[in-house]
Amino acid sequence: MTEEQSKYIIEVINKHGAKTHELINILNKIQNKYGYISSEAQSLIAEHTNTNKSQIYGMISFYPHLRLSPKPKTEIKVCCSSVCKNRGASKLTNQINNLINNYEKSSEIEIKKTGCVGLCGLAPVVFINDEMIDNADISKIKKILSKEHF
Ligand code: FES
């Protein structure tokens, strides 16, 4: 972490105050600025908010929009809530994982399960970066990924 980054993080903490209920606002600001919250940033936040690093890590892991590492080239989000699950989201997630695992640059792709995204009538729903795929199946996913990857 650079000195400038440390300075920014401490400024954000000082602005919000080192209170537990402000942690999410502090994490959101740091996420917005850097795209993720590094391990070093977590330590610094813990040190200046009278918490510990495992609490900070726990919060980042809990909130799906917060990241522990930089965003990959391709982010796949599969809705795994009830309607999508009933319409094959779990099987589709396994198929996507198999597809990615057989790809030499698999580190460029990250797959995440999400809660309901409010498009249940189009289930199963998948997002590849900002592109929404309705009634998703593995052939639609392959077609989109092949533009960038395969
Ligand atoms: S359950 Fe998947 S969009 Fe609602």
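The chain has two domains: 3-62, 74-148.
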